[in-house]
Structures are given as C-alpha cells and as structure tokens.
Amino acid sequence: MRRRALLAFSVAVLAGLAAALVAAKLDQRDLVAAFPARAGGTGSVIGPGEEACERPVHAPSNVNAVRFPPVTGHRPGPPIEVRLRAEPSGAIVAAGRLAPGHRASGYPDRPARTVRVAPVFRGGAILVCLRNAGPGPFAVYAGIGQRRRLDHGVSLAIVRERPVPLIETPGEVFERAALFRPRWVGAWVFWCLLGAVGVIVPTLLGWAVHAAHRGPHDGDDGAPAAVR
Amino acid sequence: MRTRLGRVPRPLIGLLAAVGLLGIAWALAVPPWQVPDEPSHEAYAQTLSERFAVPGDPHRPRDSTEHRLASRSAGATRATGAPAAKPEWSEAAYRRWRALDGAISRAARRDGGGPNRAQANPPLYYAYVALAYRAAYRGDVFDRLYAMRLLSAALLLVTTTATWLLAGELVGRCRPLQLVAAATAGMQPMVAFITASVNPDALLIAGSTLVLWLAARTVNRGLTGANAACLTAATALAIATKVVSYALLPAVALALGVAAWRRRHGLGARAVAVGVAVVGVIALAAIGALSVSTADETVRSASLVSADGASIPGFASYLWQFYLPRLPFQEPVRGLAGHPFFDTWVVTAWAAFGWHEVRFPGPVYLALAAFSLGAVALAAVALRRRGIDPALAGLCALVVLALLLALHWTEFRIIEAGEESGFSRGLRELRRIPLDGFNGNPFMKGRYLLPLVPLAGVAVALAASLATGRRRALAVGVLLAVIVTLQLFSLGLVVARFNA
C-alpha cells in the first residue's frame, strides 16, 4: 500500500513539475527595466529640440526596444528619437525613432508605443533619453522631469523587442529578487530555494507519505472515542 | 528529550521540514511590504521595539524616517496593487539606498509611532516578532524586516502540528489522513504567504488552530486541570493577538461546558477552582484586548460591542446579496461588486498574493472552487457514514458560524457607516482610485477566513477517508502532490510578478 501511495505521489509531483516547466516556457517576458512616474504634479512636456533622460539603469546586452506612452492631446505628435546613452560617458550606443503623426489622448494609461533601437551589445549602465525631433511638443508620464503619478502600469520601460521565456532568465530574475533583501541574501539564496522547493520539499513529502503508510496507524484503525 | 522527540510521528517530521522550507521561501521571495497591511504592521513592531509603546501618537508620522527612505528606494509604494508596475530592480538604486541608509542615525528608526491602521490590534504578535527585530538590531531595515518574517514563518509549524493533532481528535489516529489534513492547512498557499509576512493573522491562524485542537481534546478526553489550563491559555493567546478571536469564545465555552457536564458527578472543589480560573483568564484577556482595540475609531464603529442603530433586515439583505444574486426588490449594497462570495471564499482565500493583485488565471479558481466544494460534500458524506459526537460537530459549527458572523457584521457596519476598512482605503489611496471605481469588498477578504483552515484540512482528510485500502493510498499520494504543486506555482507566480 505504501508503495502505491509513494508511486501516486511521485507521478503526480513529476506531472506538476513538468507543468511548471511548460508554464515557465510559455510565459514570455520582455521587460528589462521600468521607470514608473513619481507622484505629484503634471506630465513632463518635452519641447522641440529638447532631450530628457531617465536615471541610469543597468541593462543586459539584449535590450533592443523602449516602450512609453507619448501624450499629444489627440493631435499628431512630433517625431521622437529614443537614444540609449552609455553611462557615464554619455555616448549614444543605440538609437531609434518614432515616426511623426502618432496620436494619444491625455491619459497616461493609453496604449504605449514601442520604439525599436539598434541592439545594445555591450550591456552595462545606460541612460534612456527621449529627444523631440519635431516642431511641436509632446508629453510623457515618466520619471523624466516627472510630475505625474501613474495609477496603473509603467510609464517608460526598456524592453526586449522579442520576449524571452521565463525559463531562460532565472539568473536575471534572481539577481533582481536579491535586491532590497537582508545583506546575506544574494541570487545564490534563490537558486538554493529553487532546489529546496523543487527537489527537497517533494522528497520530504514523499518520505512522509511513505512513512504514513508504514506505521500501526495507517488504516482505519484507531478511531477516537469521539467518532461513533 | 530524545524519547519525546522519538515519539513524534515520522510523517509529521517530514511534513514539518517541508513546511519549514516553504515558509523560508515565502518569507524571502516576497518583496518588502508587498503583503496586505505589512507597512502598518511593521511600523507597529518597530514602534514597540524601539519605544516600548504602541503606535497612535497623533504628533508623529506612522512610519520612521528609516522606513520611508527604504520604502521609497525599493519602489514599494509604486508596485503596491499595480500588476504592471515593478519594485526597484536597479543595482545602482540599491547602492544609492545603502549609502543614504549608512548616513542616517539610529534616531531615524525611532521617529515613527503615529496613528496606524494596525493600532487596534493587541500587542502580543508584535511583541513576538519584536524578538527577531531586536536579534537583528545591528542590521539594516531589511535585515530586521526579514528576520521578523522568518520568525513569523515559524508559526506555520504550529499551525501544521496543531492541525495534525486536531485531525487525530476528529478523524482518528490514522497517519495518512492526519498527514493530508496537516499538509492542507500548513501548505495552503495563502496561509503560507500570510504567515511568512509581518502580519498578526499568522499568530491568529496558529492560535485558533491550537484552540480548536485543545477544545476537541477536552471534549474527547474529559475535563482535567491540564486540558482546561491549556485551552484557556490558547484562547487568551488568540484574543491577545486579534480582537476577532472573541468569536472562539462560544466554542470554548461549549467544549468546557460539555466536558464539565459529562464529568458532573465527579466535579469537586478543585474542578470548580479550575473553572473559575479559566473564566477569569479569558475575561482578563478579553478586557486587555478590548482596552487596546477600542482606541481605534474604525473598530469602535464596527465592532460587535457597538450594535446601536443596527438594522437586522438590512443585515439580512446584505448577507443575501453577499452569497446570492440580488432580488429585484432589494436595495443594492454599496461595495458588494462582482461576486463577493466567490472572491472571498475562493480567490482571496486560496491564492491572491501581493496586495491581492497577484492572481492565477480565472480557470484556476474555478478548479479550486470545485475542489473545495467536492471536499466539503465528500466530508459530509464521510461524517454521515462514520457518525460524530454531536458536541464535536457543535464545536466546529460554532467556530465557523461565530467567525462568519463577526466578519460579516463588521463589514455590514462599515458599509452602514459609509466607511472603508484600512486595507481597501489604503490600497485605493495608494493607487488613487476613486471610491466608486474601487472594485473590492469594503472589508471581507479571504485571508480573514484562514483561522478556519484547520477545519478545511480535516474536511479534506474526511473526504479522503471515504476511500479505503489501496484507493486511499492513491488518494493521499495525489492530494499531497496537488498541494505541493499548487505551492510551486504560487511561489513561481509571485517571483515572476515582481521580478520578471
């Protein structure tokens, strides 16, 4: 009986683990870094010829797009250049352009535009900058000279143009998870926890199932006086 | 010592080791303050640790300077309840925070202690986690926050063990069934998530489970001084943790009353003395808890104590609309949007993490609802076949009904007073959602039902008991696998939401 219990447990757990792997393969993510706008004030207007940059962020080598919601007040917007600058030199390492004519309402949760930039192969710290290359202004709800808070969503994001399955980025995920944790916690802790939760916990439970069916109280016996 | 340890059943040892690991995983996986009301609870614990006082000083801010700096740097507020927003990922931002934190003095830990939504709670749980706070005192704010979480996570072991023992009293000393019951309670995703955070519900769940076990034991094994003392102590512990634990009192009284009635011919002066002591300790705990809780306006307006002006037909209408579709002649109850019953009993009771915004796709909850309904139905069939002591059945029913009555009454009073609970108000204000556009119950959340999780575990065990022999072995194996798989997916969901 205990072999049957253990077998049922093992088969079901393996099926669950396989399902988890499939889910992690199908779950594709593109976000590299996000700059939600801060509270207070209004959206930041970027006038003709002006350039505004976000604070520096450490980006991996496969960044190739930036997503943000330009606000044009329903009018055709100006062309916008997206520039990724190396930090601290300020040199442009990648750039892209949003063609003129895009429209958006004044609401920050309206559809964002994704601008492809040349791949940043080197990785490292970069600045995301938006330059108004047209005659009229546009606004962004981002951390750039930021004034308005977003209730939902992200106002400016560095993304991969092609999403990557979650299963391929555990190292990156764990590096992020290790920030703002106790000082002894690093990505290695999350690797250990992954092993503990994926292997040790099922093993312990399998042992418990096995042991539960081995003792003198593994059947219908032992009903307490309360059960009549 | 070795002998006693040797008497611990091996399946329980294995289960406790697994639950302990999962508790550590939950404590570390969830970003700081991404648990309902954790900022308030952490502020309470910090005030108690630093100033040996409960919060509520109107001349002070709620949070310390240290907390505000860390919260802002970690992007905690912007990520709260907003699924698309992430906490801070930047290594540079982390280094900046370290530099700023290193520059502030220890006085920055002590300048909080202002009005706090958690101040209505009695201080027992906060005193408990304050032990971890003091142990990690030399560390930074995250060292102390996560130390408190890890100590809180240890309460999972209490919940698991007490459920194992409760199942032993209600289902019998059948190890596989006890294992199923204890695993269901200790590894239920919301129980693990809440217990591994800074939240007094952790101790409430553990304390309620202890009370249930000791009450069932008292009914089963008779009234002794030890049984009565332990039951009283556990009840006092629960009441000194959260005011809602008053809902346990009718069941405790029933257990003591039934046990005393069954021993009525043998009761002597000693038993009477024990009874008086029991009532005295419970009354003292109740008075202590009430004196703290009535300092809070919300509790004063919504508690069971202040029933003035309550409308019974209105309450009945509210209850109807909570559980069933509104009838044409009924006035709609403000705040009961969507499917409050499903949202409370399934979604936020099973798996809604972060500030309840981290959820599985909808069909998962339909499956969980089917599982829950199936378990309850099969448990009812099993009870009918096996029979149960009416006193034990009454005990369980009283706990369920009293807790539900207390929670629903509180929500109804909040609705009548036109107020919101601290949770929904806090979340709505953080996300700047207008009151009319906030889709959520004014008060009820599934996590408030978690003190009933040991009974849920027993129900699953009873359902499994319908199978016999090899089929039962099969059922136990599959049930355990389903529970651990749900844990895996839940942890993965949380890690992906905040870090991918």
Q: What is the radius of gyration of chain A computed over CA atoms, rounded to a whole number of angstroms?
A: 26 Å
> How would you sum up the major sheet of chain B?
2 strands, antiparallel
Number of DSSP helices of chain A? 3
Query: Helicity of chain A, in percent?
Result: 25-40%
Q: Write down the overall mean pLDDT of chain B.
A: 87
Q: Kindly give the count of domains of chain B.
A: 2
For the residues shown, what is the average pLDDT of chain A? 79
Helical fraction of chain B equals 55-70%
Helices of chain B, by number, come to 23
N-end to C-end Cα span of chain A: 27 Å
Strand order in the sheet with the most strands of chain B: 1-2
Counting DSSP E segments of at least 2 residues, the number of strands of chain A comes to 12
Question: Can you describe this structure?
Answer:
The complex is a heterodimer of chains A (228) and B (500). Chain A is built from 3 helices and 12 strands. By secondary structure, chain A is α+β, with helices and mostly antiparallel strands. In chain A, strand 7 and strand 8 form a beta hairpin. In chain A, helix 2 crosses helix 3. Chain A is elongated, with a radius of gyration of 26 Å. The C terminus of chain A is likely disordered. In chain B, 67% of the residues lie in helices and 1% in strands. Chain B contains 23 helices and 2 strands. In chain B, helix 2 packs antiparallel against helix 8 and helix 2 packs parallel to helix 10. At the A-B interface, helix 1, strand 1, helix 2 and helix 3 of A face helix 2, helix 6, helix 8, helix 9 and helix 10 of B.
List the keywords.
heterodimer, A: 228 residues, alpha+beta, five-stranded antiparallel sheet, 3 helices, elongated, B: 500 residues, mainly alpha, 2 domains, 67% helix
